[in-house]
Structures are given as structure tokens and as C-alpha cells.
Amino acid sequence: MFGKMTRTQKIIVYGLLIILAIIIIFPIYYMVIISLKLPKDIYRTPSLLPVNATLANYEDLFFKEDFFKNIKNSFIVASLSTIISVSLSCMAAYSLVRLRYRLRTWIGRLILFTYLTPTALLFIPLSVIVARLQLGNTAHGLIFVYLTFAAPLSTWLLMGYFRGIPIDLEEQAMVDGATRLQAFYRITIPLAVPGLIAVSVFTFTAAWNELLLALIFITSPDLQTVPVSISYLITGDVFRFGLIMAGSVSAALPVIILYYLAQRFVVQGLTAGAVKG
Amino acid sequence: MTQRASQDIHTQIKGESRLTLRQMESLMGYVLVAPLLVCILVLVVYPFFFAIAISFTDRSIGAGGAFVGLANFEYLFNQAAFLETVRNTIVLVSVVQISKLFLGLGIAVLLNLPIRGRQFWRGLILIPWAMPAFVAFITWKLMFVPQGGALNYMLIESGLVTTHVDFLGTRELAMPSVIVALVWRGFPFWVITFLAGLQSVPEELYEAAALDGANAWQRFLNVSLPGIRHIVLIVILVSTIGTTNNFEGIFLLTGGGPSNSTMTFPVFAYYSLQNLNIGEAAAVGVAMLPIFAMLAFVVAILLQRDES
Amino acid sequence: MKRFWKYSLHICVFAILATLFIAPTVAQDDTFVYWGGLIFSETANDAFVARVEEWGELRGVDVEVVMINQNETVQRVSAAIEAGTMPDALDLGRDFMLLLSQNEQLEPLTDLYAEIGEEHGGWLESINSVVTSDDFGGEIYGIPYAASGANILYRRNDVLEPAGFPDAPETWEELSEMAAAHNPPENYGMGFALSNVGDANITTTMLQSYGGRIADDEGRNCTIDSEETREFLTWITGAFEAGLFPPGATTWDGAGDNTAYQSGNAVFIANPGSVYLNILENDPELADWTRYSALPGGPVMRVNPVSTVVRAVPVATSDAKKELANDLFKFLSEDEFAEEYMSAAIYGPALQSQVDFAVFSESPVHVGLLGAAINGTPGSFPDVDNASYAEYQTNFLTPNMVQRIVVDNVSIDDAIAETQASCQAIYDKNNE
């Protein structure tokens, strides 16, 4: 859009970028140094540099609080939620975009409608449902409940993405003898991979970071996910900040890495998904 | 080729089948969308109507609940705290969203320029959004807190102020502080989606505009903005709903205070629930609906104009 | 077409199998599920779990103990009641027990209460009055296992003694004078919360010690509008304006006062003992400098509210398990366990036999907790303990009243009028 940039323009641009970097990094940096401080130092010697840096908090977290188990649980729940949610929304998106039937527009609108209710109200009726299905305090119960927020957004984005893929390619395949679904599977899906990846990454993140529902539905310590176990570090009126920050850093790291690796697809997946949606 | 034509070809190839082609298509359509539909009906629609239903009762946890009509709503609207909640929610959400809009656009434009290490910057931008919400907010809390907080530490050490600044405890500063934290948390989503949108605007349009003599600013106004209009509307809708429903941010930072100056709907509903007054809590949620409905309605109209 | 279905079928089956394989089997119906109250002391928590499991072995019962964070109890219990997934027994705070019993969710345990009391020399007076309020309709719905919620006054002796104040303040006036006498920029005197948090309800205690009352003796009409209330508000807002409260006190969460004290920013705080445990472990220097005493009184009376934590049985529990629960509660009340638990926890005694435990004479904070348990005033004293009062407190109306004056600069009279109105609205609602 700018064409080539002049020197002053470059200085301004890079200057702004550096300011942006500071704004983003500073809280993270702060999080990390607190996670490296002993409890006494956190309160009595506030500073921006690590004073008496120690890995004691991380040791406590992983070996005493058994954080590894929580990471494992979160990973399982998030991955399975993602797989199931993406499969469901993929099928639904295809159906809503390529096929024609009477209730199509209404179902499409219903998906939009699902956003309007806040989770803070949903959790009570949800627990009634989960209990009736005997899914309380189980990993698969939680996975099922996570479809609440995961599936609608994925469907919506995938719908946009599929619309952006010209139907000619599928039709060509069908002329050549493929069934509609074969065409979908062999032609459309490979083209939709960026969109699928974007949707998978969003769903995974949302499931990994989700707190309220996990708190309500999981009671056994063995099944706790990462956000739940971090919130348990706050007992009553005591915030064990060192441990909390250590847990936070450990919780945020996998997702940040995931995004960094997948960012090209995330951006691409959104391009057609929401732009033309 | 149109959909219809392809169906005719299909018929020629496969021959007659028991159901008409149209019916087969319908059936397949419903079958494929069924799992999702079932999930939505069970997990969202049912709880939604459940919540609406109990907002008209005086139901308390564990106790049945008699129909009381609009009594919950009457009680709510007569509370000064509730009216302040409405005002705060509107102010907070508007300011946060507008900030995210300008920040998002600005930074997206910046990242769209031919700069080096674009991959790195895009990854960096996502960090505030990739971490769990409550982690982000606890960190901000630690930064705002007067005793031992980073911001106060920097301000005092640099000599800019002499006594602690109470970011979260004074009426004037509480709301802005909460806004800062919420914007920090949410703007990456806007940047990334706008960036995606900007990158899909065809280069030729810019070249054509440049040939017509438009400068950078005019190119932005007349080519970029219209090109991303669609995505801007969608992001506004999705993000606004999310921000209005935001509970952790405000609860962890100020708990709705001081003196209800940062109280919003979700936090208010939470306190109602602590009294086991689920009917009241539901009423708070239901009171939010008109705002969402209006927003969705406006955006839907704007989107439809796009599609035609 | 076939291949599409085959592949998607494979993925779905894989996903389902994976979840089935990984998730544990649903608990058997004859497991006894107990939701224990998680507290700060890990030693105490572990001792508790071990004890319940020991009981399980002795009786040949499968037990599952889940420790619940008190910050989440209300949400979890609410969801569990609605969904019908309540545990077979659980620990509760006394106020929540009141709310639940009014919604008929708890089993009356009056006989068991009497039995346990007899076996251990009787219940402490304050504990007894706290669980037998009129609002409970004559039944007792939980077995107390400790005196809780008693606030001990902590003070920085290293700051006060050199300033000429070696002794504990007897009245709130004295306290603010002591705070004012030594209050350089870094050392705010009065580390009391004024926010939307349980800690801040100490302002209600202060109000009552000045002779103010939330409601009348019938517990139906609010009496906030009074001279005593004005006197209290004048004192506290005066202290605030003199800069005696640490910045942030108006939006502190439950840990705000703890943080203030532990960063060396507050000279006085009121805390049941979690700070004590924390500084003992992490900051021995600060622990050295600290002295403990009972809460001061006001010009009219001394109010030192003490509450209790109880073990309760939901009505949904099966009859067989109710029997087991009774047995378990007796097992948990045995002195040998109670002593182990209380020396690690920060509670006061509930039974006479517990008064003589070593910890209550050896540890300075526990001496204070013992004093509070014996001399403390029950729950809402002098006000009537009912659902309206409980709701008044959970809405933090007294701290809000103070906030209105110091944050919004509303006049004392206006703030009183507003709070009176909100209070009456609550009482009217619950009076129907």
C-alpha cells in the first residue's frame, strides 16, 4: 500500500513497532520475574529485576503440585474437543453451504444466536444436563460441554471458508464420475486446510484456557485441567503469587508456541473465512 | 456452472434413484448438520430458555420457585447499583471496542507494510490473546496494585509521583485501568483478523488508485477500508458480545468497585448467585439480551447489504 | 462416498474410544463422597484426607474425598444441587449452611450434635448460639468442627513500640490514634478492607461496636439511620481522609489486606490467621515484629464476631449413607484427630475438650483464636441473625456506604439514607 518507504517512514514504523513490543512484552516479563521470586521477595522487595532469582516456584509446581498431570489432562481435553468440534462443524458447514434444503437459513441464524448467552448463566442448566447424562466429573463430559462454544464459531468460520472455494472444482470432479461427497473430500477439504487449521487452533486455545465450566464439572483432583489447578493456588484469602505466575507461564507457553508455529495458517484461514463469510 | 446444472449432470450419470435428487440432497443436508444441531439445541438453546424461564420466578438454589412475573426485574431496576451497572456496561464496552478498533486497524496497517520479520511480529501480537484470560488479568492486577505493583514502583522510582497511585481504588482511575487491561487482552484478535482482511485486498486496486493520483491516506480510505468492511462488522459483533460477557477481567481487578464504579452485568449476576437467588441472577442475564439483540440486528442488516 | 464415510467414521470412533479409554470409570454408587473444606494449610488438608480414608478402611467403606476451595463452594454446591450430584457429606461455612437449610437442602443433625457435645465436655457457648439461631427453626443442621472467621488484630510492634505504644489498642479510636501517630508515607496504619469482599464486613462490626444496628430486634426493619451510625461514619471517614488507609483499600480482594501487611505497608490488619501461617514460613523477620490481640471495642460495646464451620449432610443422601455420615462425623470429632488438625490449621476450638490443646497456649495467634472462641460474640450479634441480615452482608452494604462517602464524596446523611433504603428493600423482600 505504501510502496517503498522513505527513511523517515521506516524510522517511524519501526519506532511504533518497538513501542508495541514493549506494551505486549512488559506484562509477560513481569509475570516471569515474579515466578522467579521467593514469596517474601515478592512482597517486600518489589523490583523490576529478578532479585534472588530462583526456580523454587517451578519446582514446587511441577513436583509438589503435580502440574504435569494437569497439563496432560488439559492436553487430552483440548485435543479431543478440537477433533470432535472440527469434524462436527466441518460437516455442518459443508451442509449449510453446498446443499439446499428448507430450514437451511434458519439453522444458519440459530448458530449466530448461540453467542448471545453468557456462560455465567448457562452453567447451571448445563450441569443439570450433564448430570442427567451421567457425565459429571468425567473428561468426556467436559469435552461434550466444550462444544458449546467451540462448535458454533468453527462452523461459522468454515462456512465462510467453503463459500470462498469455487464450486467449479467440485463440479468438475463430479462430471468426471465422483459423488458429491467424494468431490468434497478429495477436492474441497485439501483446499480448506488453512481454514481447518485456523479453526483447530482457535478451538484448542479456547478449550485449553477455559476455566468456569472445568471448575464446575470436574471435582477430582486427578482430572483437573491447567486453569483449574492454577485457580486452586488461591486458597481463601491467600494468593500464592509466585506459584500462580509459574503456573501461568507454564500454561501460556504451549499455546503461544502453537500459535507461533501455526500463525500463517491462522491468518490464511481467517482470510477467506471471515472476509467473505 | 450452476448448482442446478450440476444436478442434471449427476442425474445423467447415476441414472434414476428412488428418491428424487432434490430429496437426496435435502436428506444429506440434514444428516450432516444434525450432530451440530443436536449439540446446539441441548447445550445452548435449552439453557437459554431455561434461564429466561427462571428469571420470571423467585427460584432459589434447591428451592422450587413460584412464578412471580416481573418482580425480579422490578427489584433490579429499583436498585441504584443496577442502574449504575447498566451505565457502566455501556460505557466500558463502547470505549473498549472503539479502542480495539483503532488499535487493531492501526497496527494491522503497520504490519501490512513491507517490514522485516513480519512472522515474528505477528507471533508477538498474539501473545496477550493466547494465554488464559485470568492469567492475563491477575498479571495486570499485580501491575496496578499500589503495594509492590510494577506501575507504582516505576512511577515512584522515577520520581514522577511521591505517593502511591491507587489505580484500582479510586473512581476516576478504576474504569480506565480496567479498560486498559481489557484492551490489552483483546486487541490481538482484531489485529489479526484485520491483517488477514487487508492482505486479501487485491494489489491491483491499490495500483489503480495510485494511478488515479490518490496518496497513501486516500488509498487507505477508499480501497482498504471498504475491502475489509465485511470482516470489521463480524469482528465487532463477536468481540462485543464477548466483552460484554466478560467476567474474569472486572472481577479479578476490582470486583465491581470501588463503589460500583466498574460494576457490569456479569459481575452483578455473580453476586446475585452468591445469595443463591438464581431467579434474580437469571433476570440480570435476561436484562442484557435487548442490548445483544439490537447489536446483532444492526450488524445483520449491515452484513446483508454487503451480500446483495 | 464410501471412503468419506469410512474416514470420518474412523476419526469419530477413534475420538470416542480415546475419551472412553482415558476417562476413569464413573464412581461406583456405594462410594462415600465427601467434599472437604480446603484451607491454606497443606498439612491440615492432608491430615484431614488421611483421617477420612482411615475411617473408610476401618468401616470397610470406599471413600472419595474431594477438597473444595472455599472461593468456589457456592458455585459448585449450586450446580450440584440443581443437577442432583451433591456429595454424601460436605463441609460448609455457617452462613451458607443457614441459606441451604432454609431451602431445605440439609438434613437436621440435632441428636448427633447433642451426642458429640456430651462426649467432649459440651460445646462452647459462642458456637452453640451460632448454630441454634431462631431462623433455623429449632433444628441444628451441621456439626461444628471449629470456631472460624474470628479476626485477630495484628500489629507491627517494631513500628508502634518506639512510637510509644507498647500495648494493644482497646478501642477503635485508640487504634486510629496509634495509626496516626506513626504514619509516614510507606506505613499506612489501618489495613482494613473497604471493598466488595468479606473482609470489609468488619465495618459492620465496627458500626455495631459504636452502638449502631442494622435492623431492629425483630429483624424486620432497618435502623441504619441513627446517631450511632453517624458517629461511626464520622470516625472512619475521618481516618480515611487523614490518609490512614492504604491506597487500594476500596477495591481490595480477599487478599488485599494480607498483601498490604506482608509488603510492610500496613501497621494494623484483622485476619484470622492465614497471614500468620504465611509469615511464619516465608518472612520470619516480620513474624518477629508482629503482636496479636483481640479486636478493639467501640464506645458502646465490644463486638467480636465468631462463626463456625460445620459438617453437613444433604437431604439427597441415601439413608444408609446418612448413618455412615453420622459415624464419620463422630470419628472426625475425636480429640486425637482434632488436635492434629487444629495445630496445623488456623481455627479456634469448638468443643470444651479442645480448649486444652497445646497449640492454644503455645502459638500467639492461636491464643487469640482461643480467646475469640470463648469470648466472641455470635454471628450477627447484636443484630438478629436471619436471611435478610445474611443478604445484607453478602451485598457488602456497610462497606459500600463508606465507599460512597470516601470515593464519591457523598455526604454522610445521604449515604446513610441510601443504605437505609437498600437495606429496607432487602428486608422487605425477605419478609414476605
SSE inventory with pairings:
The complex is a heterotrimer of chains A (277), B (308) and C (432).
Chain A: H1 7-35, H2 39-44, H3 56-64, H4 67-98, H5 104-113, H6 119-132, H7 139-163, H8 167-175, H9 180-209, H10 212-217, H11 226-231, E1 234-235, E2 238-239, H12 241-275
Antiparallel strand pairs in A: 1-2
Helix pairs in contact in A: 1-12, 3-12, 4-7, 4-9, 7-9, 7-12, 8-9, 9-12
Chain B: H1 3-14, H2 21-54, H3 71-77, H4 80-112, H5 118-130, H6 133-144, H7 150-157, H8 171-199, H9 203-211, H10 216-227, H11 229-244, H12 248-253, H13 265-274, H14 278-307
Chain C: H1 2-22, E1 32-38, H2 42-59, E2 63-69, H3 73-83, E3 89-93, H4 94-102, H5 110-119, H6 125-131, E4 143-148, E5 152-156, H7 157-160, H8 172-181, E6 188-190, H9 202-209, H10 227-241, H11 256-262, E7 266-271, H12 274-282, H13 284-289, E8 290-293, E9 305-312, H14 319-333, H15 335-344, H16 359-362, H17 364-375, E10 377-378, H18 387-394, H19 397-406, H20 412-431
Parallel strand pairs in C: 1-2, 1-3, 6-7, 9-10
Antiparallel strand pairs in C: 3-9, 4-9, 5-7, 5-8
Helix pairs in contact in C: 2-15, 18-20, 19-20
Describe what this molecule looks like in 3D.
The complex is a heterotrimer of chains A (277), B (308) and C (432). With 277 residues, chain A is mainly alpha-helical. Chain A has two domains: 7-56, no CATH class; 61-268, Orthogonal Bundle (MetI-like fold). Chain A is built from twelve helices and two strands. Chain A has helices at residues 7-35, 39-44, 56-64, 67-98, 104-113, 119-132, 139-163, 167-175, 180-209, 212-217, 226-231, 241-275; strands spanning 234-235, 238-239. A two-stranded antiparallel sheet of chain A has the order 1-2. In chain A, strand 1 (234-235) and strand 2 form a beta hairpin. In chain A, helix 4 packs antiparallel against helix 9 (180-209). With 308 residues, chain B is mostly helical. Chain B has helices at residues 3-14, 21-54, 71-77, 80-112, 118-130, 133-144, 150-157, 171-199, 203-211, 216-227, 229-244, 248-253, 265-274, 278-307. Chain B has 14 helices and no strands. Chain B is flat and about 70 Å long. Chain B has one domain (79-307): MetI-like (MetI-like fold, Orthogonal Bundle). With 432 residues, chain C is an alpha/beta fold. Chain C has two domains: 2-149 and 307-375, D-Maltodextrin-Binding Protein, domain 2 (3-Layer(aba) Sandwich), CATH 3.40.190; 152-303 and 386-430, D-Maltodextrin-Binding Protein, domain 2 (3-Layer(aba) Sandwich). Residues 19-28 of chain C have low confidence and may be disordered. Helices cover 50% and strands 12% of the residues of chain C. Chain C has 20 helices and ten strands. Chain C has helices at residues 2-22, 42-59, 73-83, 94-102, 110-119, 125-131, 157-160, 172-181, 202-209, 227-241, 256-262, 274-282, 284-289, 319-333, 335-344, 359-362, 364-375, 387-394, 397-406, 412-431; strands at residues 32-38, 63-69, 89-93, 143-148, 152-156, 188-190, 266-271, 290-293, 305-312, 377-378. The chains are: A mainly alpha (277), B mainly alpha (308), C alpha/beta (432). At the A-B interface, helix 1, helix 2, helix 4, helix 5 and helix 6 of A face helix 1, helix 2, helix 4, helix 5 and helix 6 of B.
